[in-house]
Design brief:
Helix content: under 10%
Number of strands: 40
Distance between the termini: 124 Å
Radius of gyration: 42 Å
Strand order of the largest sheet: 7-37-35-34-33
Shape: elongated
Length: 634
């Protein structure tokens, strides 16, 4: 019995010792890595080393090619993560190339191409109409459902994309032009009631010029409306409506605007002509207002220095304005008023006409142009003008209109069109009376001789047609690189009494110098009235710019005597040939809301609603109202 019990104990003791010796022999440092795999079996911090085969030698191995040993095998590295060990351009964070491979091992191919890769700009097209939406992305190749054309304004509607057919009345902008439903340019016959109406009354008729400019300096254009009468007087003045203005409804101008008034004793129709510009060289827009009428007093031109922050009384001396004045009663100083670069000093200059001025004290020679070179800081009269040009009339000229027509002769200075109404001169001992238009080249300071300054002219028999009553810089109507000149004769009798006409003269031809004795011989287009007596085509005239966005300027013409309430025409450039009422691109007609005489004046305020097309202002004298028409959203 004793022997049987002892033997098992001895055996157990022997086996325990053997197991402990075996462990110490296999893993001496006890780090869990047995010898001979342990690369340092005396340091528990050092176990085995892992290597990965790097077949493409890009510095990263394939996890499937793992090797556990102390020394690196040939072609193996310690870092893994390569998702394609057969291509050296493929590894984590590699530049993504346009090669169809997942170069950076993020699970996507060609998703963020490296700089310099050949790319295409693409846009997602969810509705499959061929137009994408948003800013798009630069891609190696377009994925399915992507296109190269953007501009879709609703990528969930396949019938909505640029150029799509417009469906009127559904309040959907099918063609993505940003305009109101069925927004289109003036076409055919449209109502002239307007989206916004600027309203005066019989004591404030708003019958002067209209200009748009930022007089306040706040970044918003302000409305500047001349009125030849102000609050029961006949002296006239100017209203300034500070912007921004509403785009619809009615505005009572007298109640809403600042009043710029002059000397109320002069009865000078202040506000009949208005121009704006920085004439005192202080980087603020100034307001220049003509008051030419009055038999007992010379005409005046007021210069109100900007910026404006309230109304002003310009009859009281002050540092905020200056006065330019004619010399004799009834001289009409200010009948024509224009600014421009007329010498080479870079300053804005002012040119003013005096149709009744007696030249240099003479009692036999009438009419003059007076040039005041900028900057203008002080009061001046016509005798102290920097240059005066005699019009050589043997009687007072009935009217002298002026228009800056740009640098037609490319000499770096502005040129001026001068319309002379009932201009009577003595030629070869004979007294001859014309209407005429002269184009004067820049560089006026070189001479005061009218003939020497005239580079082009056209004559018209003076029979009361008022040829040259309005001369207008029209812009480039035919896209030939030269701006055109437009001249009206609203009282011309062609078929009916006072049916009126407008002629368009090519800037390219004017630049070649010369002229004609008949406007029909020189004009590239003629717009005539032949519908009714007293139609007076051309009484209102404006050049709004490129309304239809075809690269050519367009033209707006008022015909206040057109039946029944008056109207205005819109002609899209190029203007060529003969236009009768039936040939016009658009007619904006008056109605009961406008009253008769609609179109007596036309103005070009620019793109008021910000939709990319110039808009129009048309005057309705019976209702003393300017109507603003959005040419892109009627």
């Amino acid at each position: 019995m004793v022997i049987g019990l002892v033997l098992p104990l001895i055996l157990a003791a022997c086996f325990g010792v053997s197991e402990r010796r075996e462990t110490r022999y296999v893993d001496p440092d006890g780090d869990g890595v047995p010898w001979p795999i342990d690369c340092d079996d005396q340091d528990a911090e050092v176990g085995t080393r892992v290597w990965y085969l790097d077949a493409d030698a890009d510095g990263l191995g394939d996890a499937l090619g793992r090797i556990d040993q102390c020394e690196a095998p040939e072609g193996a590295v310690s870092a893994t993560g390569d998702c394609d060990d057969g291509d050296a351009t493929v590894y984590p964070n590699a530049p993504e190339l346009c090669d169809g491979l997942d170069n950076d091992c993020d699970g996507e191919a060609d998703e963020d191409p490296a700089e310099g890769e050949p790319l295409v700009l693409g846009f997602p097209d969810e509705d499959g109409d061929g137009f994408g939406e948003g800013d798009g992305a630069a891609l190696c190749a377009l994925p399915e459902g992507w296109v190269t054309v953007s501009g879709d304004c609703d990528d969930g509607a396949p019938g909505v994309f640029p150029g799509a057919a417009v469906v009127c009345g559904d309040e959907v902008d099918q063609d993505c032009d940003g305009l109101s439903d069925c927004g289109r340019l003036l076409d055919g016959e449209v109502s002239g009631e307007g989206a916004l109406r600027l309203v005066g009354d019989e004591y404030n008729p708003l019958d002067g010029a209209v200009v748009i400019a930022d007089l306040t300096g706040d970044g918003h254009p302000d409305w500047i409306l001349g009125s030849t009468q102000i609050t029961r007087g006949s002296n006239g003045g100017v209203y300034v409506l500070p912007g921004p203005l509403p785009l619809e409804g009615e505005v009572d101008v007298e109640a809403s605007a600042w009043l710029i008034s002059g000397d109320t004793s002069l009865k000078g129709e202040m506000g009949r002509s208005i121009v704006v510009g920085d004439v005192n060289d202080d980087d603020a827009v100034d307001l220049i207002i003509a008051a030419p009428e009055g038999s007992a007093d010379p005409g005046r031109v007021y210069v109100a220095f900007g910026p404006l922050d309230a109304g002003r009384d310009l009859s009281v001396s002050g540092a905020d304005h200056v006065l330019l004045e004619g010399l004799t009663g009834g001289d009409g100083f200010g009948d024509g008023l224009v600014t421009g670069q007329f010498d080479d000093d870079g300053q804005l200059d002012v040119l003013i006409s005096s149709p009744g001025a007696q030249w240099n004290g003479s009692t036999t020679t009438y009419g003059a142009l007076h040039l005041f070179l900028g900057p203008i800081w002080n009061n001046y009269d016509a005798a102290s003008a920097d240059l005066s040009i005699a019009l050589e009339g043997v009687n007072a000229v009935e009217g002298v209109s002026l228009a800056n027509i740009g640098d037609i002769d490319a000499d770096g200075l502005d040129d001026v069109a001068v319309g002379l109404n009932s201009w009577k001169v003595s030629w070869s001992g004979l007294k001859v009376q014309f209407d005429a238009v002269h184009v004067l080249s820049g560089g006026f300071e070189a001479t005061s001789d009218l003939d020497a300054l005239t580079s082009w002219r056209v004559f018209y028999p003076d029979d009361g047609d008022d040829f040259g009553a309005t001369v207008q810089h029209a812009g480039d109507l035919d896209a030939d690189g030269y701006d055109e000149l437009v001249v009206s004769a609203p009282r011309r009798d062609k078929i009916l009494v006072d049916d009126g006409a407008v002629w368009v003269f090519s800037g390219q031809e004017i630049a070649r110098t010369g002229g004609a004795t008949d406007p029909a011989d020189a004009a590239i287009a003629e717009i005539v009235g032949n519908t009714a007596l007293n139609q007076r085509v051309g009484e209102g005239l404006a050049a709004p710019g490129d309304v239809d966005q075809d690269g050519r300027a367009d033209l707006a013409i008022g015909a206040p005597g057109a039946p029944e309430y008056g109207e205005a025409f819109v002609i899209y450039g190029p203007a060529e040939g003969l236009y009768e009422r039936k040939d016009l691109d658009a007619r904006v007609t008056g109605g009961a809301a406008t009253g008769t005489g609609y179109g007596a004046a036309v103005a070009a305020p620019g793109d008021i609603n910000g939709l990319g097309h110039p808009d129009l202002l048309l005057y309705a004298p019976e209702k003393f109202t300017w109507h603003l028409l959005f040419t892109d959203a009627l």
